[in-house]
Structure formats: C-alpha cells, structure tokens
Amino acid sequence: xxxxxxxxxxxxxxxxWSVDQGNHDDAEIAQAKLYxxxxxxxxxxxxIQVFGGMGLMDELPLERMWRDARVERIWDGTSEIQRHIxxxxxxxxxxx
Length: 96
Ligand SMILES: Cc1cc2nc3c(=O)[nH]c(=O)nc-3n(C[C@H](O)[C@H](O)[C@H](O)COP(=O)(O)OP(=O)(O)OC[C@H]3O[C@@H](n4cnc5c(N)ncnc54)[C@H](O)[C@@H]3O)c2cc1C
Fold this sequence. Notes:
By secondary structure, this protein is mainly alpha-helical. The protein has one domain (2-93): Butyryl-CoA Dehydrogenase, subunit A, domain 3. It is 73% helix and 0% strand. It has four helices and no strands. It has helices at 2-21, 26-51, 62-70, 79-93. Helix 2 packs antiparallel against helix 4. The longest helix has 26 residues, at 26-51. The protein is elongated, with a radius of gyration of 16 Å. The model has no long low-confidence stretch (mean pLDDT 97). Flavin-adenine dinucleotide binds at residues 71, 74-75, 78, 80-81, 84.
C-alpha cells in the first residue's frame, strides 16, 4: 500500500513537472490519473480488510473513503478512456 501510494505520488509529480515545463504529454497525465485512482481503490479496500468487520463500521472513516474512492475511476475521464489516451500516445510514438 505504501509503495503504491509513493508510485502514484511520483507519477503525479512527473505529470505536474511536465505541465510546469510547458511540454506536457497527455499520456503522462493519463498515467498519473489512471494509476492514482486505481491505487486509491486498492488501498482503501485493503485498509478495510486489515480492520476486518470493524473497517465497515461508522466508527472508522474507512468505508466512507472506500465508497468515495469509487467515483475517481469514473469522473474526469474513466479508467478506460485514460487507457485509450495512453495507448494512442504509444501507437503515435511508433508511427501508428
Ligand atoms: C459524482 C459525479 C460527479 C460528476 N461531476 C461532473 C462535473 O462536475 N462535470 C462534468 O462535466 N461531469 C461530471 N460527472 C460526469 C462524469 O464526468 C462522467 O460520469 C464520466 O465522464 C463518464 O461518462 P458516463 O457516466 O456518461 O459513462 P459512459 O461514457 O456511458 O461510460 C460507461 C462505461 O463505458 C466505458 N466506455 C465509454 N466509452 C468507451 C470507449 N470508447 N472505450 C472503452 N470504454 C468506454 C466507460 O469507461 C465506462 O466504464 C460526474 C459524475 C459523477 C458520478
């Protein structure tokens, strides 16, 4: 979980850095959004698993976080659309 969080942060920082440099690549941004939103789904699910049944109770914020995480793979470009952007950029690089 910690490693995936760190990877998402690095992808996000790379995308932000490219934007700052004025030479951003859509695929870099799509990779950051895709990875971070899928990482969030994994990490919130694992966190509930760690706490067992308690993870689903109102006393902890985990179930709410897990539920809130679900929309991240839908809005601002669904995961499938991010994959389209990434694959399109890869094909372009290879003359496609
Ligand atoms: C809580 C919430 C708040 C929102 N707020 C805003 C907002 O403020 N502003 C705004 O503009 N929009 C907002 N949206 C809308 C959001 O951007 C759309 O839900 C999102 O773009 C997906 O479109 P859709 O729901 O029409 O799904 P669809 O486009 O119908 O997609 C359904 C499924 O098919 C897949 N799919 C679609 N096309 C392809 C394709 N070509 N190849 C492969 N798979 C495909 C999708 O990935 C998805 O899994 C919000 C949505 C939610 C849930």
